[in-house]
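Homework-ish question, so no full write-ups if that breaks the rules, but can someone show me the predicted structure for this set?
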Amino acid sequence: MIDISLFVLMLLGALLALAVYLPLRAGQLSLATPGFYTIGGTVAALLSTQLPGLGGSDAVYPLTSLLLEMIVAIAIAGLLAFLIDKPVLKLRGIYLAIATIALVEILRVILLSSPWFGAAVGIFAIPQPFEGPEGYLIAYGLLLAIVAWACAWLERQPLGRAMAAIRDDELAARCMGVSTNQVKLIAFVLSAIVAAAAGVLAAHYFNSWNARQANFDASITTLAFVVLGGSRTWLGPVIGGLVLTALPELLRPIGDLRLIVFGLVILLGPIFIPQGLIKAKQS
Amino acid sequence: MSAATSTNNLLEIEQLSVCFGGLQALDRVNLIINEGEILGLIGPNGAGKTTLFNVITGLTAPSHGQMRWQGNSLAGKKPEQICRLGLARTFQNLRLFRELSCINNLQVAMGSNNRRSALELLALVQLQEKAEVAAASLAYGDQRKLEFARALATKPKLLLLDEPAAGMNPIEKQDLQALVQRVRCQFKITILIIEHHVPLMMQLCDRLAVLNFGRCIALGSPEQVRRDPLVIEAYLGSQR
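A: Not a homework solution, just the prediction itself:
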């Protein structure tokens, strides 16, 4: 029987996929999403366990504190994205991908080597704002709904169209008056914000948090969500995130073979449906 | 030359040179574009015509020389800034936003959601029925027209057209000529146009500038340029 926790993870996958999608819509292959996700989780874990004032010892962790964590995490991730944007987004294509992988690794090593952030052991006993997975399901559902709606809205705005124009032809976009650096910066910061917000909820949901959340595997998995789902509209990453998170669990009955099937899906998806499951719609 | 400018001079290009390694792509080019005119730029392949466009639109930095737009220097300006000053271009090898619909292509250039103006521009190039079609799936001639409309969508004062008739059949070329003339009157814009089709240029342009090996070898009315011995030599080789 499928556990309700799987649905929570599926929604988390969809959110991270949207975080990958935002820069990718502007032609930026950024794999930094797990890094900002980890920042969100670490901020939540630290605040809720270290600041008694937030109500970490209460029977039920207050939602207002959760909201406060989210604001702090979003601010930190957004600021970091803003600061590293200039050097990082000068790079293109695969070089940008490598630089963002390095960023995720740097974050991982910082967390791993600093007792402050829990070091190798991690941070435990993160207080629970919800009694069961149902609460997280609702919280993640709400967050996904907000982010997906915002992405859908953005796609119909000049900024969203400018992003797509950059992906199609950056030079032509500049010659048509699009401030490409500014557009790419906004996409990158928005992506960091979405990932950090998803991380805040994840730290509470998993009850513990450690440096292993940020790794190369996570970068590739979240990218696979978007590659399989499609990167032309917001619906593609959402579908990709939901399906690819569920797939390994649904394939559990076939044992070790499931990893092979999962790998095949990621391998064959781009070959047979290069645009992803959800094609571009004309709007 | 003094820095004094008359209001009639939209763009002044002074002693402009571009070197790519050892290649002198542009060699001390002087050119003044007057407001309201259609100035044609012709010359053999590799003469530096597109390079001149790239320098004007900020894609290539000049090695020497300067450009003044309505009296102000364009030095160090980025392509997007230059576009917003009122210079818009088309590309020799079409550079549309291929996955975007025609109307979205124009909306990107307008930087707004304004559907009505976008549709008006599409109607101008007779593409209003293709508004929701992806740019990539248009016929070649239609793609050229869309790129023309996209440049217009930035509300330019100076429109730079890089071989707008390339690959068009004779009827399309005639339509294009009529369109360029109409646009000049309707939008009160100045046009700098590169085109190999000389008869079309003779009819269309108020003045012609001829580039050869990066130098501007002739400048004047189409009739003057046609009789210029240097131009004849550049195109046909010297008489023995």
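Now go work out the reasoning yourself. Hint: The longest helix of chain A spans residues 180-206.
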